[in-house]
# Entry
Amino acid sequence: MKLNTPVLIIIGVIVLGGLFFVFKPKTQPQNSPSTPQSQTPTTQDSNGTDEILDLTNQKEVQMDIQDYAFQKPNIRIKVGTKVTWTNRDSVRHTATADDGSFDTGLLAQGESGSYVFTTPGTFGYYCIPHPNMRGTIIVEGDNQGSITESKNTFNLVIKEKKVISGPTTIKINQGDEVTIKITSDEAEEFHVHAYDNSVELEPNKQATLTFTANLSGRFPFELENSKTEIGALEVQPK
# Structure
């Protein structure tokens, strides 16, 4: 049987196609590129560092509270240094000692609270609403662990109408000039009897009363508004 040309062409195409698939070289599968593992970002705690900042040459330290952290979380200071915390966040924060020795109370944005450290030691503190916010204050004294400002300068810290830091009896000599620095957790008036010396106290802000002890004897000092006696001034005669 004689095949016509179109049929021969079709048969030829089929044969060539079959030969191509039979003898097609096998390609090795390529290894898929490895997918890089995503790195987990490291996070710091609210303080961000364990470094201790030496501020022993400062009498007053300003401490901002911002972005849910104490901006100088770990510091070293001297006895008699005043630390002031100022809240820069829109939420309320506190600076509260682990041992309860100081507490700024809840600070709204822009508000401040202060504390004068009169005792050497290490004081951990935190924020009551946000306990992951922490800080440490290391307080150094001189060789005797006493305040170095003046022998007749006394620091009193008052909480709930009681002296929680500083002397409840101040002993001086007649004719001496005496300075009393007072920090209270509430508004009051500090008054020394017989001398009729007094100073207004604002919450968590240090106030200073300076006078000359001309009279000898024992003179109570009290919180005038609540009529609460909290200590006494003893003046030894010349």
Observations:
- The domain at 153-236 is CATH 2.60.40.420 (Immunoglobulin-like).
- Confidence is low (pLDDT under 50) at residues 26-49, 143-149.
